[in-house]
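User: Can you predict the 3D structure for this chain?
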Amino acid sequence: MELGIAVPVGSTGHLGHYRGGEGVPRSSALREESSALWRLLATHAGHHFTALYEGAERWRELYVGDLGPDVVGGDADLDIPFEDFLYGWREGDQAGLSVAGHGVLRCLECGAGLWLGKAYGAGPDEVSFFHAGAGAGGGRGNSANVPVNRALWRFLAEHVMHELSVGVNGEAPAAVIGGTDGPSFEDYVAGWPG
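Assistant: Here is the predicted structure, written as structure tokens:
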């Protein structure tokens, strides 16, 4: 998925946030991009992945000849538009679904974790969406819950090029962001420019 343009923080070399093109707000404020990101996590529950810089060696390894990977939200001919990726997705609609467990996004390199909320779906490997609670999103899901959504975008910015996993009911780090023993979502994103 296309996350946007990585914006560094001062001279630290760390990413501050992602933003769209010139004049486009930070990616965490864009509803369609945020919804697609949350759907991607639900679709890949139980999988490992890495947020890559375009042009990084691991990114170039995904190319076969001149053809790169299909990217959700990308601008190449074979990429998947956000609206196509989101078509028919019912984030927050709990009708006919049960709680399959609780989700955590883990950085396998740092040991950090972000609580994703209850996993609604047919089972731990068939998650329809994650729901971290009412907050600003009400029953609509995490993409509409501002502090939860911003926390996800910050976590991805801080752990770019790290191996990550989306786990349901697996082992979680001791102090998960948004969990009972870690910082709240609000504290985690306080003062963050993204």
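The chain has five helices and seven strands. The chain has one domain: 5-189.
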